[in-house]
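Researcher: I'd like a candidate sequence for this fold, 367 residues long. If you have to choose between options at a position, lean toward the conservative one.
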């Protein structure tokens, strides 16, 4: 991997706190950080952060094998403005979800109707708590062009953009390293466990190679635009349950599953070289092999399979599940065939072209 230009060695993180979610959806998160706010806050700050897609190695990465993931140009946008009162109001129009968050009392008060996506507000509250130390009221507007719960890193993108926007609004100049660190802390707090894949890509953008249980993250220099199409099924796979199902399968059939995980490792390492050489045929074949192995792990579904084969029939050189599977999304590698693959997949599910987002989190100030 001679083209690797930067290496981030990441330290181990302990889960800092327990979250108690009550029926009324009031959550309780112990305070972790308190910042002194220096000077006046800005009038309006907007931050954006990209989502992600895993190209190779999902599930195997849980067992210390490598994976390759990319930041995609589907983003979360968070705009913060002053309010006259001291309350913090959050509005996510794309989800028809709005309410007040109270960092002092660790409470979320939802004003919209019952909403299955309300969990995203846990991330917003936890992110605000990290970087909000003043009594200044805020209006937080969130716009999303990443589908929620599709394995495309929407919660990390919202977390990173919220930390970036609220910190800047409060006159703090956080480095990208600090934003990534706080975002990872938020994911640990809200989810109990989290790898750094999503928060790293939302913060820094680009392409990454992960190894050793995702504690070692290496940016990859890929100097061409990988033509990718994402297709999202209606079903939402539960990552925790799918990881557990693979663990049980490995426990039940170690002599079958371990060679499968080793094969994923080998193909992922081959894929690094193929991506760097832009070897279209090999990239596609390796994706298809990876898909076969994910199927063998038991994380495929009929809907995912339909899209995977339709993408190949429409001209994709490779297609596979991206992320945990069991629902969620597929990714197809489509040199010269983006239009065909996208429109054919759109006849059965929602599909769109994505490009690699070289840029990670971005902040704009309107004073
Ligand atoms: O559900 P997603 O898209 O965030 O993907 C999870 C990827 C796994 O390898 C299955 C789990 C993990 O933590 O790496």
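Model: Candidate sequence:
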């Amino acid at each position: 991997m001679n083209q690797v230009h930067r290496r981030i060695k990441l330290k181990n993180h302990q889960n800092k706190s327990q979250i108690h979610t009550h029926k009324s959806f009031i959550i309780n998160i112990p305070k972790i950080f308190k910042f002194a706010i220096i000077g006046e806050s800005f009038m309006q700050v907007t931050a954006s952060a990209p989502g992600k897609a895993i190209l190779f190695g999902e599930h195997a990465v849980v067992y210390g094998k490598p994976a390759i993931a990319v930041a995609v140009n589907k983003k979360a946008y968070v705009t913060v403005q002053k309010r006259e009162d001291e309350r913090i109001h959050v509005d996510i129009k794309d989800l028809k979800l709005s309410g007040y968050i109270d960092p002092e009392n660790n409470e979320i008060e939802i004003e919209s109707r019952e909403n299955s996506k309300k969990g995203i507000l846990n991330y917003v509250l936890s992110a605000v708590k990290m970087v909000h130390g003043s009594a200044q009221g805020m209006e937080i507007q969130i716009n999303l062009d990443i589908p929620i719960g599709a394995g495309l890193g929407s919660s990390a993108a919202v977390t990173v953009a919220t930390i970036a926007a609220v910190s800047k609004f409060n006159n703090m100049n956080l480095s990208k390293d600090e934003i990534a660190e706080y975002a990872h802390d938020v994911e640990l707090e809200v989810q109990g466990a989290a790898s750094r894949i999503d928060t790293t890509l939302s913060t820094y953008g680009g392409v990454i190679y992960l190894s050793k249980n995702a504690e070692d993250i290496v940016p990859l220099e890929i100097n061409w635009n990988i033509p990718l199409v994402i297709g999202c099924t209606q079903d939402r796979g539960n990552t925790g349950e799918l990881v557990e199902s693979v663990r049980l399968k490995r426990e039940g059939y170690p002599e079958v599953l371990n060679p499968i995980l080793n094969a994923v490792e080998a193909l992922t390492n081959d894929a690094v070289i193929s991506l760097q050489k832009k070897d279209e045929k090999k990239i596609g074949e390796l994706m298809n092999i990876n898909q076969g192995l994910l199927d063998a792990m038991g994380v495929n579904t009929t809907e995912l399979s339909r899209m995977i084969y339709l993408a190949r029939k429409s001209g994709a050189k490779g297609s596979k599940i991206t992320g945990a599977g069991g629902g969620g999304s597929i990714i197809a590698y489509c040199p010269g065939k983006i239009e065909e693959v996208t429109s054919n997949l759109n006849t059965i599910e929602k599909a769109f072209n994505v490009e690699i987002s070289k840029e990670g989190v971005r902040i704009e100030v309107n004073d």
